[in-house]
Q: What sequence folds into this?
């Protein structure tokens, strides 16, 4: 080995024993592991679930409709000659007839026609010969087997029919869009569907045609269909649309990456401070090396080699640990995911190491280059060389480059930029607030205590470190408190927000001929509920003219215009809607009247007396707005944007909807209701929320894991800053003792300083955490903010304990005879 | 009490048979042994000697910052070895000041706050006022709010001189006070030092390489091969 690399290696070996290099290595290790983990996991989830591969769609093109497909539409597709098949998907309750004590379970039912699917394949356990269950058989996902206590060969009840469970569904394409893709799935043959009775005219379901063909045929078909889509139709093509599973997962990933930004920034800060400390210590050495005849270029090379060697070490360790954690995380996601995940793109294994290299080089270059410009006179004088403007601008440029690298890695540049700005601004603000607070707190002490006046000098002297330390600690404690509280609190609070009598069952798709019997069942079992009629129609006219030309672009984006509305009619005003303006009709008015929901009135700029026209199954109905209602959308009761007066809609095809609450023993009634009316679509809200909360919990666990990593990064950073300050503290302490203070006094001063710093940071973190939580509660959950008094106690205690603990752990008492040795000539 | 003692003890420092050795891995290093030294109140004394002779070590013994391996040191009549940590701090606070070669100002404090520091340690009545007065005395009345980095080496040493005199010490130690300064600046520092010393009647013990500086003192001693010899001009 030639001289320079050997020198670099030797330097690294001796420096591995110093705290700054250990901190630097630890911080880069964490950063590399975290980056590797997130890029690998992100890539696999994205390629497996987000980018709509043919395997996810189950076809090359899918037409999805919320109404049965019309014969014309089917004919259009048939005429092009592409392969096609049809699927219906809808929510329903299923039960295990052999285990009456188990409540029915909410599932998503798919009824398909062979061949199915057209792309990708269904994987079952045990493997089955055909592509679909044979008639009378059903394939179900593991969660259904678990919850209903079923084994293969057992019987499953769906509506009026019983099916034999012949296989477990491991993975399958075409899971549909929206929340239904999260629910456990069961798969039957389309031929078995009618007998179940669960799907009647007007039922809510997703009706799909899957299509497969060569590229030109599919492109032509897409071009033909897209302009002619009706309101209730969607076209899903490769790469054009994202199913909602993807959206939710995409959001979750983006959220995790943002959380990781905090950890990466802390690591970067640690590396920056470590390198600065390192380079300060290297001034004399590099002045010596330059004096001995090493050229500045060679000197830079020596230090760069040293950084590279360090990088090599942490790159291997970091990548390895990142890959290990990734496979663990992927393990506990598998039974939630509809697909096996593909292997990661190979070059992404190096992403963490690459980011680590960028961090080390970009942060390391400015101090290394400044080492090469040390004037040799430094050896004689022993002072630090002045920072020239070139070094400054180089440092700024490197930091900017690093920020860009981080933002690119996070892939959500805007959100990350906002977060970055927020962290920086918040950090600076917290730093300065903490410092003023410290000074303010020390004032009363100063007038009473001799130590208090020294404390004021100490606070002034340590102010830069205090700012940095309190900014980091306040941010970390806030993060910790918010994640801690919100994990347990928010979901519980959100649920508690609903009054105890909030309905927990919905029944939809009630057919007119079932209404009377159901009314009787409800009355008999004293279930408190009202049945509401529901008719679908599209808003198309305002005051006798087409509505679209009368609205602004923004108004045209409104939900009420983009899809069909659920319309209802009723005699009495619903008890859970307040009337804001106008009057409810009495009896049956001569001409149709409507009551419109408040937000829709506002968004579309409607006023009382306006006439709205609706297209209901091809017929035009017009009515005058005579009242405005307030609707609590989260009440879990049937709610409607538009309610008609009696007499206007009775002749149109109607289904009915209701909701009610059953608790404890009475939940049995839901089972009985399904037995009496097997074709009802009963939805158990509790189960729906439970299915949702599994995802929330996984998200919570992931953020807790990231939080732990972030905390680790923060602790390393704290240790580095305290150590840096320690050097200075030793000098100060030595000086104070020669100036007449006793070592006991300097100890008390340190204690007082750390205690005050801890209390201040804890207090600030308490305020910040409460504010963040209140914001979350208001913005996300729409609940009254609640204070958490214990936070105000715990956070100051925790942070004082932290500062005093670490402070005294690294504080070495200074004997008197060491004091003078530290201060005398030469240093 | 100070008054009583000072009347009873005309000697500011009295070192009897002091020795100092260090035990290192390479064996025992004997710096000096059985040194005797008496310094009268108000006297100025220069210690010269080549680098490594043990001058700084001797100074830390005379200042009560370190204890001799053998022998005893009295400062202002008090036997150092009989004092505990608190009492020694008390003695330093009431009697002693230091000036260092590397100035040792706290970089994050202004000139004013640096001078205030020892006054605050003593719980003085109006530290800011006194500090300002002493900065004026060394000609830095206009630079009170400047930080050490904004001052030249000579100016920093003047702040250190102000800090040393601010507590009105009866005993002042200076360890190569001009060692980091060029000749002209060093000369100025010497002027300030001796002017204030005369004005305050301080006992001054200084270590130097500088012949001119040494010549300004009433007595000169040379530490050489572990022995102290009086130089007579
Ligand atoms: N604690 C110690 N342990 C070992 N050797 C020491 C210690 N303190 C000082 N020395 C040694 O004593 C010698 C004299 O040091 P010093 O008093 O600083 O000399 P001077 O001030 O005359 O240059 C030096 O060789 C130094 O290395
Ligand atoms: Mg010396």
A:
């Amino acid at each position: 080995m030639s001289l320079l690399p050997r020198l670099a290696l030797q330097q690294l070996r001796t420096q591995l024993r110093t705290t700054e290099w250990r901190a630097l290595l630890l911080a880069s290790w964490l950063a590399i592991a975290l980056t590797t983990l997130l890029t690998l996991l992100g890539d696999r989830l994205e390629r497996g679930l987000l980018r709509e591969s043919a395997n996810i769609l189950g076809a090359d093109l899918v037409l999805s409709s919320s109404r049965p497909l019309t014969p014309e539409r089917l004919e259009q597709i048939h005429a092009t000659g592409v392969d096609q098949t049809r699927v219906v998907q809808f929510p329903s309750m299923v039960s295990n007839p052999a285990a009456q004590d188990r409540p029915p379970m909410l599932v998503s039912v798919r009824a398909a026609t062979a061949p199915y699917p057209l792309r990708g394949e269904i994987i079952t356990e045990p493997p089955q010969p055909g592509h679909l269950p044979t008639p009378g058989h059903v394939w179900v996902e593991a969660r259904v087997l678990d919850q209903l206590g079923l084994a293969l060969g057992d019987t499953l009840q769906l509506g009026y029919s019983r099916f034999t469970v012949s296989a477990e569904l491991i993975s399958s394409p075409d899971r549909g869009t929206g929340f239904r893709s999260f629910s456990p799935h069961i798969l039957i043959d389309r031929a078995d569907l009618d007998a179940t009775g669960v799907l009647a005219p007007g039922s809510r379901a997703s009706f799909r045609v899957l299509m497969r063909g060569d590229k030109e045929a599919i492109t032509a078909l897409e071009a033909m269909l897209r302009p002619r889509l009706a309101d209730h139709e969607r076209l899903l093509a490769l790469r054009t649309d994202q199913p909602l599973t993807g959206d939710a997962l995409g959001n979750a990933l983006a959220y995790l990456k943002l959380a990781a930004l905090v950890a990466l920034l802390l690591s970067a800060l640690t590396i920056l401070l470590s390198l600065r400390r390192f380079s300060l210590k290297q001034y004399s050495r590099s002045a010596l090396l330059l004096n001995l005849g090493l050229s500045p270029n060679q000197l830079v090379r020596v230090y760069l080699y040293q950084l590279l060697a360090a990088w090599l070490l942490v790159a291997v360790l970091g990548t390895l640990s990142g890959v290990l954690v990734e496979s663990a995380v992927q393990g506990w996601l598998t039974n939630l995911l509809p697909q096996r995940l593909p292997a990661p793109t190979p070059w992404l294994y190096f992403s963490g190491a690459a980011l680590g290299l960028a961090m080390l080089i970009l942060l390391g270059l400015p101090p290394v280059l400044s080492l090469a410009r040390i004037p040799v006179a430094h050896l004689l004088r022993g002072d630090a060389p002045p920072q020239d403007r070139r070094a400054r601008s180089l440092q700024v440029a490197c930091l900017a480059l690093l920020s860009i690298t981080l933002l690119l890695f996070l892939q959500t540049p805007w959100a990350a930029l906002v977060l970055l700005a927020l962290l920086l601004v918040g950090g600076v603000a917290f730093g300065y607030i903490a410092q003023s607070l410290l000074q303010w707190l020390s004032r009363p002490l100063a007038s009473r205590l001799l130590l208090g006046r020294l404390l004021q000098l100490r606070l002034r002297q340590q102010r830069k470190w205090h700012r940095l330390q309190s900014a980091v600690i306040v941010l970390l404690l806030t993060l910790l408190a918010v994640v801690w509280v919100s994990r347990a609190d928010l979901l519980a609070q959100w649920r508690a927000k609903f009054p105890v009598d909030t309905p927990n069952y919905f029944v939809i798709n009630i057919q007119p001929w079932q209404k009377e019997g159901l009314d009787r069942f409800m009355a008999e079992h004293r279930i408190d509920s009202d049945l509401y009629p529901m008719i679908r129609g599209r808003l198309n006219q305002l005051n006798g003219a087409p509505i679209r030309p009368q609205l602004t672009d923004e108004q045209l984006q409104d939900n009420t215009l983009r899809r069909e509305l659920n319309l209802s009619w009723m005699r009495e005003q619903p008890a859970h809607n307040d009337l804001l303006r106008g009057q409810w009709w009495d009896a049956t008015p001569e001409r149709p009247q409507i009551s419109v929901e408040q937000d829709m009135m506002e968004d579309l700029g409607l006023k009382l007396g306006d006439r709205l026209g609706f297209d209901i199954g091809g017929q035009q109905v017009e009515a005058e707005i005579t009242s405005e209602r307030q609707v609590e959308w989260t009440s879990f009761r049937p709610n409607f944007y538009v309610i008609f007066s009696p007499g206007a809609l009775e002749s149109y095809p109607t289904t009915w909807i209701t909701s009610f609450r059953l608790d404890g023993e009475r939940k049995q009634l839901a089972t009985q209701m399904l037995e009496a009316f097997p074709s009802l679509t009963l939805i158990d809200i509790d189960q729906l929320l439970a299915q949702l909360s599994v995802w929330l919990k996984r998200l919570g666990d992931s953020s807790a894991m990231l939080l732990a990593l972030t905390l680790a990064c923060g602790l390393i950073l704290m240790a580095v800053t305290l150590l840096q300050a320690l050097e200075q503290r030793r000098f100060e302490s030595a000086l104070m003792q020669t100036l007449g203070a006793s070592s006991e006094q300097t100890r008390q001063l340190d204690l007082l300083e750390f205690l005050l710093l801890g209390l201040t940071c804890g207090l600030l973190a308490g305020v910040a955490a409460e504010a963040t939580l209140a914001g979350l509660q208001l913005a996300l959950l729409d609940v009254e903010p609640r204070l958490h008094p214990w936070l105000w106690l715990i956070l100051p205690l925790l942070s004082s304990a932290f500062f005093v603990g670490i402070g005294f752990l690294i504080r070495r008492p200074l004997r008197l005879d060491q004091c003078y040795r530290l201060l005398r000539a030469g240093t | 009490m100070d008054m009583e003692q000072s009347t009873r003890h005309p000697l500011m420092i009295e070192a009897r048979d002091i020795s100092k050795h260090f035990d290192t891995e390479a064996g025992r290093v004997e710096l000096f042994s059985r040194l005797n030294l008496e310094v009268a109140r108000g006297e100025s004394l220069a210690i010269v000697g080549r680098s490594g002779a043990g001058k700084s070590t001797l100074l830390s013994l005379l200042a009560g910052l370190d204890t001799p391996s053998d022998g005893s040191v009295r400062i202002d009549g008090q036997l150092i070895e009989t004092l505990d940590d608190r009492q020694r701090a008390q003695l330093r606070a009431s009697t002693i000041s230091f000036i260092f070669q590397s100035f040792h100002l706290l970089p994050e404090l202004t000139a004013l706050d640096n001078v205030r520091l020892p006054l605050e340690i003593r719980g003085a009545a109006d530290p800011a006022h006194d500090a300002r007065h002493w900065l004026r005395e060394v000609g830095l009345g206009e630079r009170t709010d400047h930080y050490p980095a904004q001052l030249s080496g000579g100016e920093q040493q003047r702040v250190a001189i102000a800090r040393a005199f601010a507590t009105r010490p009866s005993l002042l130690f200076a360890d190569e006070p001009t060692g980091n300064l060029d000749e002209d600046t060093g000369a100025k520092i010497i002027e300030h030092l001796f002017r204030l010393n005369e004005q305050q009647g301080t006992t001054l013990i200084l270590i130097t390489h500088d012949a001119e500086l040494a010549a300004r003192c009433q007595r000169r001693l040379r530490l050489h091969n572990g022995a102290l010899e009086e130089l007579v001009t």
Chain B touches chain A at residues 56, 59-60, 63, 65-67, 85-86, 88-90, 92-94, 96-98, 100-102, 104, 106, 108-109, 113, 116-118, 120-123, 127, 163, 167, 175-176, 179-180 (CB under 8 Å). Chain B is about 35% helix and 30% strand.
